[in-house]
Specification:
By secondary structure, this protein is an all-alpha fold. The N and C termini lie far apart (106 Å).
Length: 66
């Protein structure tokens, strides 16, 4: 009879508790925000590279038709 109690206790110890909804949401939110920050940084770098590669507009070259 005691063995049933020991086996039952071992069975409960072997079960792990799954993370709650809030814990899973927080983990997913951190992952998404990290990816979004990485994308924003990459886009900011590309915009900076484009603006430094582009020639400045010269108003003297622009002609207006009468």
């Amino acid at each position: 009879m005691r063995w049933y109690g020991v086996i039952l206790c071992l069975a409960f110890l072997g079960c792990s508790q799954e993370p709650s909804f809030d814990e899973r949401y927080e983990q997913a939110d951190k992952a998404v925000r990290g990816k979004a920050d990485a994308i924003d940084a990459e886009l900011a770098g590309q915009e900076t590279a484009r603006s430094s590669d582009a020639a400045p507009a010269d108003d003297a070259e622009v002609s207006s038709a009468p």
